[in-house]
Amino acid sequence: MVAREGRIRRAGVGAAAAVFGAVATVAAVASGAAAQVRPSSVALHRSVPARASLPVHLAVAAVDTFPGTYPGLFDDSGAPSFPAAANPSLVERWVSDALSVRANRLAQLQVDVAGAANLSTAAQTTLGNLIDADAAGIGTLVAEAPSGANVDTLEAVASSMVLSYRVIAVVSPLVRDVIDASDQLQRAADLQSVEPALEAAITTEPQTGSAVAVAQSTYRDLVSQIAPVAGIDQTQLTAMLALHPASYVASSTTLGSAESAILAAEDRVRAAGADERKIVHILAAPGISSNHRIIRLLRSLLR
């Protein structure tokens, strides 16, 4: 997966870190010895800002007092396997926190999808249904792990939490990336919508000189940068919207490819935006054009 700081919204990290810190304290007391802490292998999705990921990673590492096969709270790569001699109270607390983490993540994703103005109706429906199904499933698991449950019951709940719903490994990055790609498609469409105005500004009257030549060259670059973006992002959207929790094995390749393509397309959009600003500044400069309508149009683009 491609790491990217600050791309999408995340909420509740501080509260989660506090909960995990409390769990770490319980773990230390229950073990009766110094905790065998191993570095967390969890790779949080790029949507989690770097400044927030450190306390989360530390908290996950601190709570990991079981043998190496025991996964972290944010690890959806495999079903948890608790040691036979594990303290049931500690396991119960871990399962409860793991379910809460996923319920909170799904609630945030619901907010993100509802507020994503650039999602198509079809994409919004697909993502909404996926999140709702996972939220209902996680809610059912909460009821299946009552207080005082034995370790076997808790392990079954934790396994289902991972294998059936993959909130962290599939659903979360899928939703974030679909929103990213949709936002980028809109940005590309916005840039393409000003192409006729820019072209008209360049060709309306017989302008000559090096400045106009630069504007013409820059306009050709803008068109070449932005033209492929719609195809790139639409291809990725189609592939991502076909994923679901059971797609875990294939999802790594699909999401990884999508994120790489989205970032490449983002670079194109950024370059095209710079081209647009450059053209407008060139053509709106004093002495370049005597056509007041074109000058007003260009200055409106600057705003």
Please characterize this protein's 3D structure.
With 303 residues, this protein is mainly α. Helix content is 70%, strand content 0%. The protein is built from eleven helices and no strands. It has helices at 13-31, 50-63, 88-114, 121-144, 151-165, 167-193, 195-203, 210-226, 229-241, 248-283, 292-302. Helix 1 packs antiparallel against helix 3 (88-114), helix 6 packs antiparallel against helix 9 (229-241) and helix 6 (167-193) packs parallel to helix 10. The longest helix has 36 residues, at 248-283. The protein is rod-shaped, with a radius of gyration of 25 Å. 39% of the residues are buried.
Oligomer: single chain
Distinct helical segment count: 11
The share of residues in extended strands comes to under 5%
Helix content: 55-70%
Name the average pLDDT: 74
Order of helices and strands: HHHHHHHHHHH
What is the rounded Rg?
25 Å
Structural class: mainly alpha
Distance between the termini: 37 Å
- Outline: rod-shaped
| Biggest sheet record | none
Summarize the structure.
The protein is mainly α and 303 residues long. The chain is built from eleven helices and no strands.
Which structural traits does this protein have?
303 residues; mainly alpha; 11 helices; rod-shaped; disordered N terminus
Secondary structure topology:
Layout (H helix, E strand, L loop, with lengths): L12 H19 L18 H14 L24 H27 L6 H24 L6 H15 L1 H27 L1 H9 L6 H17 L2 H13 L6 H36 L8 H11 L1
